[in-house]
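ok so I'm stuck.
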Amino acid sequence: MWCAVVVFSLPAIALEVDRSHRDGTIVVSAELPHSVSAVRSLLADESVTMRLGKNIRDVKVTPLANGCAELAVTNRAMRRELRYVSERCPTADGWHSKMVSSDDFVRHDIQWAVRPENNHAKVLIFVDVELKTIVPGWMVDRFVVNALEGTLRAMNDILSTTDSPISPPVD
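replied:
not stuck anymore, here's the structure
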């Protein structure tokens, strides 16, 4: 009986998330223990991708004729809602979401890349964001990094559950 208690009390293997800045862009990445195709399948649906972040209050997705999608996003952040409209398009290894309008942001640019690494999927998220308010940049960066780490953990959790709507195929 004692052995069973020890086994059940062991913590789950933590997802190792890397954080850095490159020329003002926040980069958060992690190697997910899932196939590249499973991760890409999860991220292919804009409404799923946008709901991975716990601070996303609302997202409206409008498919565009060019194969991209228009996203009208409302975020909960720093005691208020922040809104923007972006165009999200597929790239060679992921997606690029570029802001087209906002009353709250000067810029809001996100790139997702999913690449093979060690028989798993390396997910990289690049964010270049600037608010129109006087909130210090370091505070915005901290908020964004925490949100992105949560997003990567949510992706891993979704792909790790057996009753996930998207089953991870084997590459």
